[in-house]
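Good day; I would like, with your permission, to put a structural problem before you. A protein sequence and the structure tokens that stand for its backbone fold form the material at issue. Thank you for your consideration; the sequence and its tokens are set out here:
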Amino acid sequence: MTDSVKDTIKVLNNLIETSKDGQEGFKTCAEDVKNAELKALFIKRAEECSKAAGELQAAVTELGGSPEDSTSVVGDIHRYWVDLKSRITGQSEEAILNEAERGEDAALKAYKEALAKPLPANVYTLIERQFHGVQRNHDQIKALRNIARAS
């Protein structure tokens, strides 16, 4: 396996962790929020993150690598913080949305860093497509947070 393939696998595995973090983070938000519409949105986003992780795992396998299958320690700590903050604030929608947005900020950063790396065209296309989904999630969560803040 060449160094460039190993580097590509490393980039993909980092994004798998990011996607798994997003999946678990959205699940945590869904568990903590009372609003049924937000709960459904968070569940849908968790499913999308799971699908994204699956696509990235398939790309790693195609390259002959071993795909990541877990979350990151940083993501685990963030989810614990979301859950704790939710309990302290009485499951405030704004607080939960703030933390969801923070998670999406981290995901955007990870995807931007990945897109700055030299990658095979097919891998770049996959990551770029997923990046647009992360951007959409971020913007929607931010808009919902702004609405909750104004209420």
Summary: The first helix runs from residue 3 to 32. The mean pLDDT is 88.
